[in-house]
Design a protein that fits this description.
mainly alpha, 1 helix, 51% helix
Length: 109
């Protein structure tokens, strides 16, 4: 009753996927038989040189704003940890005084 019953694995229906590259037809541009030179793909920073200096300035300002936002979040987290530490230390001192007061009260009886 308490033994789990697992379903049988479907190993007979599993067929592994095979990836076969398809050949790309080579078109000859010259009658001499030489293959064409493939064009270079544009890099991520290729368009940056074509923009105006204002665009670069806006990107730099956006980066600075992002860094400032992350820094403010980090400072807020550290401040929260510091406030929590102070609250725990104060409450620990209060609990210590209460325990000592209760011990003295029970010792007198």
């Amino acid at each position: 009753m308490f033994k789990p019953k697992y379903p049988r694995p479907d190993t007979y229906a599993y067929t592994p996927a095979t990836i076969r590259p398809t050949p790309i037809p080579v078109e000859l541009s010259e009658p001499g038989g030489s293959a064409p030179v493939p064009a270079k793909s544009p890099s991520a920073f290729a368009g940056l040189a074509q923009h105006s200096p204002g665009t670069a300035l806006a990107l730099a300002a956006g980066g600075v704003a992002g860094v400032l936002a992350l820094a403010s979040v980090a400072v807020s987290l550290l401040l929260a940890v510091a406030v929590t530490a102070v609250a725990l230390s104060v409450s620990g001192v209060v609990v210590l005084f209460l325990v000592r007061a209760l011990r003295q009260e029970f010792m007198r009886r």
